[in-house]
Design brief:
339 residues, Rieske Iron-sulfur Protein, 4-stranded antiparallel β-sheet, binds FE2/S2 (inorganic) cluster
């Protein structure tokens, strides 16, 4: 009695004998010395898809990919809008769920259901086998992919959307672009000088040797616009700190940015006797007065404090003749911008 479990010996003669299976064709030519090569015709039952209604299943897979696409797009929008984590998780989950479900359904119901078997023979393909393999590969690829062109496109679209939104965290997590923020302050031509409680500064408010911290009236911006107003001269005295600034210091007043050019600390102290502004962080000293425009004379500050041009209006209020003519604060940027 033959033993079914015993290993069968495969000889070229046995392989040359062909097969009864209508789904198989014999590729070796008649009289060929090569072992028979059996391949499965694409019309064989193994190549039929598992879905009872392929069109309906295609639509279902398309719906799943569309849900995935919308999920990824929603994740991108939610991330962009700084939405709560629950929305980020939900949208990303829906995206992956739709895409994954589409993959599974496509593979399970729209791919050839098989099974495929192949007789074993001597390893190492002959040229005919290689040629046949290439043909088969191309024709099977058509069955699997080309006939589902719409799904391939939709899958590509969902993957592209995911690739784009995946880059969002890299870009958006860096925070908003500073753009020209560091180059500008809120000071404009005609801005009133106001104190921290919003009161306009009148020309009689500060005595010689006195100081006041001021801001532009229309935009109280303490970070970049804070300015040190110093009265270094007498009423009626025009203080010229350097050439080109002949009318920037009316009635004995000078105004300089309060943001230190070293590391951005507030320049908070004024020494009346030496006419110097002092930054308490690292003790930078800036000379001010006639002929000196906040020149750093001690400490690590690398450049003078920008000067705010002043004027006095007809009612005696101090106003900015213009904004700063250069960026304020530490000078990591290119110099020469305007405010
Ligand atoms: Fe002003 Fe360093 S921040 S001296």
């Amino acid at each position: 009695m033959p033993d079914d479990d015993a290993p069968r010996e495969l000889t070229p003669e046995a392989l040359d004998a062909g097969t009864d299976d209508p789904g198989r064709i014999q590729a070796a030519g008649e009289g060929s010395k090569s072992p028979a090569i059996e391949t499965v015709s694409i019309d064989a039952p193994q190549f039929q898809v598992a879905a009872a209604h392929p069109r309906r299943m295609e639509r279902s897979v398309a719906l799943m990919f569309t849900i995935g696409l919308l999920g990824f797009a929603g994740f991108g929008a939610a991330y962009w809008q700084n939405a709560r984590n629950v929305f980020l998780g939900l949208t990303l989950g829906v995206g992956f769920l739709g895409l994954g479900a589409g993959f599974v359904a496509w593979g399970k119901y729209l791919m050839p259901r098989g099974p495929f078997s192949e007789s074993r023979h001597a390893l190492g393909p002959t040229p005919e086998e290689k040629e046949k393999f290439v043909e088969d590969f191309a024709s099977r690829g058509k069955v699997s992919v080309e006939r589902r062109g719409f799904l391939v496109k939709l899958l590509g679209a969902a993957s592209a959307v995911f690739a784009i939104v995946a880059a969002f965290p890299l870009l958006r997590s860096l925070g908003p672009l500073p753009k020209k923020l560091f180059y500008k302050t809120a000071w404009r031509k005609g801005s009133y000088l106001v104190t921290s409680d919003g009161r306009r500064v009148h020309v009689d408010d500060v005595e010689t040797g006195g100081i006041l911290v001021v801001f532009p009236d229309h935009d109280w911006d303490p970070a970049l616009s804070q300015t040190m107003l110093v009265r270094v001269g007498q009423a009626g005295e025009n203080i010229v700190t350097e050439k080109g600034r002949e009318n920037w210091g009316p009635e004995g007043y000078l105004a300089f940015s309060r943001v230190c050019t070293h590391a951005g600390c507030p320049v908070a102290l004024y020494q009346k006797a030496t006419q110097q502004l002092l930054c308490p962080c690292h003790q930078s000293l800036f000379d001010i007065g006639p002929g000196v425009a906040a020149l750093p004379v001690f400490g690590p500050a690398p450049r003078p404090l920008p000067q705010l041009p002043l004027e006095v209006d007809s009612q005696g209020y101090l106003r900015a003749r213009n904004g700063y003519d250069q960026p304020v604060g530490p000078g990591f940027w290119e110099r020469g911008g305007t405010t």
